Amino acid sequence: MKFANKKIVVLGAGVSGIAVALILQQEGANVILSDTRAREQLRHDVAPLESAGVTLILGEQSATLLSAVDYLVLSPGVSVYHPLVEEARKRGILVMSEIEVAYHLCRVPIVAITGTNGKTTTTTLVGEMFRKAGIHIAVGGNIGEALSQEVRDLLPGSAAVAEISSFQLEGAIDFRPHIAAILNITPDHIDRHRTLENYRATKEKIFARQTPEDFLILNYDDPTVRSMAEKTSSQVFFFSRRQILPSGIFLDGDMLRICWKDQDLVVCSVADMKLFGAHNVENALAACAAAYLYGIGVQDMAAVLKTFAGVEHRIEPVATLGGVTYYNDSKATNPESSIKALEAFEGHIILIAGGRDKNTDLTEFMKLAAEKTDALILLGEAKERFAEAAAKQGVQQIHHAADFPEAVKLAAQLAKPPQVVLLSPACASYDMFNNYEERGRVFKELVRSLT
Fold first, then answer.
1. Are strands 263-269 and 235-240 parallel, antiparallel or unpaired?
2. What pLDDT does residue 186 have?
3. What percent of the chain has pLDDT above 70?
């Protein structure tokens, strides 16, 4: 796909939209960047785009934007159900995501990782394993910078490692990673995708264009993900925490073991890993699978697993005050992710949860909360529904907080050793913050101010 001399509209002036608009302009396209927000409402400076020749149309959007347009490029925050997207398709305009642009600009193999939970940790682990093996890489997508920005200047011999969200996959057309991984599928973003079936089908687009020369890593323990093996033309490589597999990577006792064709290799033991929690064993297995299929040795995988402590905002230790350790799990934006966080601890948790409600089923989350928590502190738009679900499942201590300062102060008053304080919201952050990163940073600042 060529972009030079094409008229292209980019919808959404977030990080990805701004990056891809500038890159497409540099590729010789005539680019318009449009956002429903006024200039003063944007979080990022768009002056460099104007200097490069990008046309900015901010505020009110209308179908006149699509006049004589060749391609419509969507930022991840713009849904395929947007009225302009539907109008573009009626007019025969090719609609694509930013990762589709990145794919056509990329000259090296792409390792792409998706799933409902664990994407960031797994992607970061893969990146560290590649670096340990001396492979020059770019890491981007739903983590860090826009993928189109990261891959454009990669030279042959390098690789791209990408975290890919369902939002980014909505507008995928030819996107074909050499190695793709699907970690798990649980209900999430149904407000965006409308049905669980749509959400699953969107995730499956990560392997839709793969060939028998490519690899698809699937979680054998997730029946929905395991069944995707029947839909792909690529070589399937399973990972499992619960079963010993005849082929793939799995947990054999305490050891991470790879069996593939004529090789039988041991990476390291779970006890050797610095990460903790069953979910992180799954992330490690998936990361090792990607590294192995790319040709990286087990010694480099093991070296990373023995030193990698985790990513920011994912069960991140913040401080230990008065014998109580505080953990930031702001990245847990759905109940399934918070369940994994709760499972990582033996119990005695003071849990802070709530935020923008995704209206997901809370039954299993609150059953586990009743078992694992000594107190539940709720805040945000979801607190009333969360409180009702918690009481129904037998959570004994339920507290409400008006805001984050009050929640952290209350947690500090309640917590005594051997308890821990865990922020794991099981909700989006948009009722109080711009994103989960800001929420996590505020939490950490509040905890450190307790000293």
1. unpaired
2. 83
3. 98
Cα separation, 341 vs 23, whole angstroms: 38
- Both 153 and 215 in one domain: the answer is yes
Please give the residue range of the domain that contains residue 211.
100-305
Residue with tokens 């409402």, as numbered in its chain: 41
Could you give the C-alpha distances from 280 to 156, 285, 408, in angstroms and in order?
A: 32, 8, 26
Residue 310 lies in a domain: no
CA 65 vs CA 11, 83, 132, 408: distances in Å: 10, 12, 47, 47
263 phi and psi angles, rounded to 5 deg: -110, 145
CA 399 from centre of chain: 30
Asked if residue 205 has pLDDT above 80, the reply is yes
0.85 surpassed by pTM: no
| Mean model confidence pLDDT for the chain | 94
Q: Would you say residue 2 lies in a domain?
A: no
Distance separating alpha carbons of residues 148 and 73, to the nearest angstrom: 12
Using the 3D structure, point to which of 272, 305, 338 is the last residue of a domain.
Answer: 305
User: 89-112: buried (b, 16+ CB within 10 Å) or exposed (e) per residue?
Assistant: eeeebbbbbbbbbbbbbbebbbbb
- Which residues on neighbouring strands pair with residue 17, listed in sequence order? none
